[in-house]
Amino acid sequence: MTPFMREIVFDTETTGTNPAGGDRIVEIGCVELVNRVETGRTFHAYFNPQRAMPPEAEAVHGLSSIFLSDKPLFDDRAAELIDFIADAPLIAHNAGFDFGFLNAELARCSRDPVCLSRMVCTLVMARSKHPGAKHSLDALCSRFGVDRSQRVKHGALLDAQLLAQVYVELTGGRQIGLGLMTEIAPQSGERFGYAPAQRPIRPPRPHSASLEERQRHAQFLRAITDPLWARLAVPEGRTATC
After folding, report:
1. What does pTM read for this prediction?
2. Does residue 108 lie within any of the structural domains?
3. pLDDT tens-digit readout, 101-158
4. Of the residues 61, 93, 135, 154, which is catalytic?
5. Most exposed of 69, 86, 165, 204 (fewest Cβ within 10 Å)?
6. What is the mean pLDDT of the chain?
7. Are 62 and 153 in contact (CB under 8 A)?
8. Which structural domain, as residue segments, surrounds residue 136?
9. Is the dihedral of CA 79, 83, 87, 91 positive or negative?
């Protein structure tokens, strides 16, 4: 049975770069992975930041103050977000940025922060694996052949979906989720509506040749005319040299 490993890839869009200076999250997108395979479960929300959208930030993600004016506050959906991410590791590109904004928003609504021990940064991973190369999300998509043709502007859910594919490649590719291991997995997936599949454990298949197969092989060898190994054989009474 395959070990159960649940992870969340996420991305945020914001009004700027400084949560301590009053910048806010305006969009968050989360993608669930189980054993490095997307399950199809996502969390996506837009938020009213209760402040004007700077033109330079709007140019990046295209989210205007008018569009966000009727969206819920972060606090309105915080419980739903916390339930979705549960206790899974959280993967983001330049994760310190996203964690800083996420914990600032949680603090504003008097909720516990997400522990930094859960942070997995794909930017750090990419720099370690490909030093000297470009490490933007666009560059990594190009490197790993991930289709980013729909990425006209930044979008939290789309970027999280792209990053999920990049993360799988950074951690070894799709073979990770093939389920070749046999350890007993915890049943924590039942909380989310699924559990690891039960697979029968079969005894090892014998591979040694039977007596009949060895006799047929010897008969086949005797029928070969002027075999190469006969030319290389050491005559009786002589010693092979190297």
Report:
1. 0.73
2. yes
3. 999 999 999 999 999 999 999 999 999 999 999 999 989 999 999 988 877 778 899 9
4. 154
5. 204
6. 86
7. yes
8. 6-192
9. negative
